[in-house]
Amino acid sequence: MKDNKDYPQLDKMVIIIVSSWLCDQSSRSQQKISNLLGEIIQIENLGNGKIKLDNYQTFSANLDHDEMNLEYVPKI
Questions:
Q1: Strands, E, within 1-76: which ranges?
Q2: Could you tell me the pTM of the whole model?
Q3: Cα angle value 52/57/62 (rounded, 5°)
């Protein structure tokens, strides 16, 4: 097994978790809307083998389903 000195060490990083689903739609409309939900978790190396986990932010949006895979940037 290699020594940890061979691997880069990060002081901070984030994990972004995203989920989406198609909303119920009216039978009178052809438009599809999707709900997009997510959260940002921040991980910080405090040293001495300790880390800090922080639920940094959550976000949500209602987006046109056909455009959902285009770039969406939550306000942070």
A1: 12-22, 33-47, 50-64
A2: 0.64
A3: 155
**Going by DSSP bridges, is the β-strand pair 33-47/12-22 parallel, antiparallel, or unpaired?**
antiparallel
Listed in sequence order, the DSSP H helices in the chain are none
- Cα separation, 22 vs 8, whole angstroms: 40
Asked whether residue 75 is assigned to any structural domain, the reply reads: no
Residue type, 39: E
Q: How far is 69 from 37, CA to CA, in rounded Å?
A: 14
Residue 65's pLDDT is 76
The residue segments making up the domain with residue 13 are 4-67
63-72: pLDDT as tens digits: 887 776 666 6
pLDDT, tens digit, 9 for 90 and up, residues 41-56: 999 999 888 999 999 9
Number of domains in the chain: 1
**How many other CB atoms sit within 10 Å of the CB of residue 36?**
16
